[in-house]
UniProtKB/TrEMBL annotation:
The keyword Cytoplasm does not apply. Keywords: Membrane, Transmembrane, Transmembrane helix. It comes from Rotaria sordida. InterPro entries: Acyl_transf_3_dom, Nose-resist-to-fluoxetine_N, O2_lipid_transport_reg. The keyword Transmembrane helix applies. It holds the Pfam family Acyl_transf_3. This is Nose resistant-to-fluoxetine protein N-terminal domain-containing protein. The chain crosses the membrane at residues 146-171, 213-233, 254-273, 293-316, 337-358, 402-423, 430-451, 474-496. GO terms for molecular function: acyltransferase activity, transferring groups other than amino-acyl groups.
Length: 531
């Protein structure tokens, strides 16, 4: 086709590109060199990401000889093309994904025509093409959600900045009256809870002047100082050993070990879609040692057990301070919602509105970010109500939030067992928690019988897009996950009844350790044949 036959700017630029490549112009060879090459190495290992070189397509070529950048008549535009399946931004097609570099003047329709001629397929549509020119950072006007999120983050950042300054001023004022540096802790105690800690202010001769200095600080300044970055970091990194009998420090070890296990499993699972040797991963899944990774889902149950245990302990402790009442139950529900929701929604806002601007690349979701269009349309409100694992599951925002949904739902129904326990009907409390355990076990068994061919691993889910999903049917379903939480409640009940002084005899400890030693490895390797 000659230049006279080219009807669009895209076609004219593409003809210039082809002619320059035939003339072996370096800039044109650079653009074609950035294309993904058909049949690269590792295809039989599952390498279906023929992405080419993203940066080579978009950036000017640097010439070390004369220390200049190579000029070219137009800028390149990088696109990913998936001819076999319709793809959505942020996901990888089950077929091949090919990276191509075309003139930036080409729109999606022009690229579709090019792809149809290239692959000899008429069923390729604009849904099969994703281009760098469509990235959020390339758009002239910022969406309203982005502006709102930036305003909220700016306000919070301003509060932290002002709070830090106010905090330092108040601390310096206190230190000027109390030269002994150890007295600064007195300011922290006062500003944190509004009272003077007698242990922090050692010398009584400073007491009156300390009170006078701190009374000059208005309640507004004390409130703003709560946003201080210095104070927050001090609270995070100050490790004080508590000698309180009510301390449950042993839980921290369980949290750390389980957290490492979760991170390890997610590091493998989330990268599974982007590896070029997925066949090797599938072969590893039949190795017993690999079950520590593929069955990392068991580590999440540890957090459910801890959550149930702490809920039982804290509920009973609060009841000992005040009588059970309707007001107490309202506070029980509202307190947890207020404690979790602001931070959760802030993270959700950032994930929906800002993640598209956080990076770039051939696979990076630079158009709509980490969240799907379904999340933006009708999945967000399920997060506010903590029902995202029940309603619009396929459009769930912030996929890992399924844990918060389950934990909140378990918190809602926990009083059905807690209230009988604290009013003296302990047998009913034990009975209700036992029913919860049986519901979890029965639900899993029933679902597996109804879907006999369903995979039993998230790793198998990642490579099998057909049929029922283990993730949606079992993994995030509250009726399948409640057993661990109920066991935590039972453990809390037993702890309350027996107290800190309970010691099991040697025989019981030996039998329990033996059963645990046998069942633990068996649980980890159960899915060898199903991975």
């Amino acid at each position: 086709m000659s230049n006279s036959n080219a009807t669009t700017q895209c076609e004219q630029d593409f003809l210039i590109l082809v002619e320059a490549a035939l003339s072996r112009d370096l800039w044109a060879l650079k653009l074609f060199d950035s294309w993904g090459k058909p049949l690269p190495s590792g295809v039989l290992k599952g390498n279906m990401l023929w992405t080419g070189n993203y940066d080579e397509c978009l950036d000017s070529l640097y010439q070390p000889a004369n220390k200049t950048f190579l000029s070219q008549p137009f800028v390149g535009q990088y696109c990913t093309l998936s001819p076999s399946d319709t793809i959505s931004e942020g996901t990888v097609s089950s077929g091949l994904t090919l990276g191509i570099c075309v003139p930036s003047s080409c729109d999606r329709q022009s690229i579709v025509r090019l792809a149809r001629n290239l692959f000899k397929k008429d069923n390729i549509t604009e849904n099969n093409v994703l281009c760098s020119n469509d990235a959020a950072s390339k758009q002239k006007n910022l969406p309203r959600g982005v502006v709102i999120t930036c305003v909220i983050l700016s306000i919070l950042g301003l509060l932290v900045f002002v709070g830090t300054i106010v905090d330092l001023i108040l601390a310096c004022r206190f230190e000027s009256i109390n030269p002994d540096s150890s007295h600064i802790n007195g300011y922290n105690a006062i500003s944190d809870i509004g009272l003077i800690n007698s242990k922090s202010i050692i010398s009584s001769r400073y007491l009156c002047s300390s009170i006078q200095a701190l009374l000059s600080a208005t309640p507004q300044s004390i409130f703003i100082a709560q946003f201080s970055a210095v104070r927050t970091l001090r609270r995070i990194f100050t490790m004080e050993k508590k000698n309180d009998d009510n301390s449950l420090a042993f839980i921290h070890g369980l949290r750390v070990l389980s957290l490492f296990w979760v991170i390890f499993g997610h590091s493998i699972l989330f990268n599974l879609f982007y590896t070029n040797n997925i066949i090797d991963v599938l072969s590893w899944s039949h190795n017993i040692a690999f079950q520590l990774i593929s069955n990392g889902v068991l580590s999440v149950d540890t957090f459910f057990v801890i959550s149930g245990y702490l809920t039982a302990i804290i509920f009973v402790r609060e009841i000992t301070k005040e009588k059970l009442s309707f007001r107490f139950l309202i506070r029980y529900y509202i307190h947890r919602y207020i404690r979790l929701t602001p931070t959760f929604l802030l993270v959700l806002l950032v994930s929906i509105n800002l993640t598209a601007y956080f990076g770039r690349g051939p696979i990076y979701p630079s158009i709509q970010g980490f969240e799907s269009e379904g999340c933006r349309q009708h999945g967000w409100w399920t997060a506010i109500l903590y029902v995202g694992n029940l309603v619009h599951v396929d459009d769930m925002c912030l996929g890992v939030s399924w844990y918060l949904y389950n934990d909140m739902q378990f918190h809602w129904i926990a009083p059905l067992a807690l209230i009988p326990f604290v009013i003296g009907r302990k047998s009913i409390g034990y009975f209700v928690t036992t029913i919860y355990v049986l519901i979890g076990i029965g639900s899993i068994v029933g679902i597996l019988l109804y879907y006999p061919n369903m995979s039993l691993s998230l790793f198998a889910d990642a490579t099998n897009v057909n049929g029922p999903s283990f993730f949606s049917k079992i993994y995030i379903a509250p009726w399948c996950r409640i057993s661990a939480y109920a066991i935590g409640l039972l453990t809390g009940f037993i702890f309350i009844n027996t107290g800190h002084s309970y010691r099991s005899n040697t025989l019981i400890s030996s039998i329990s350790s033996t059963i645990n030693g046998i069942s633990e490895p068996n649980d980890l390797v159960t899915a060898v044949n199903n991975s």
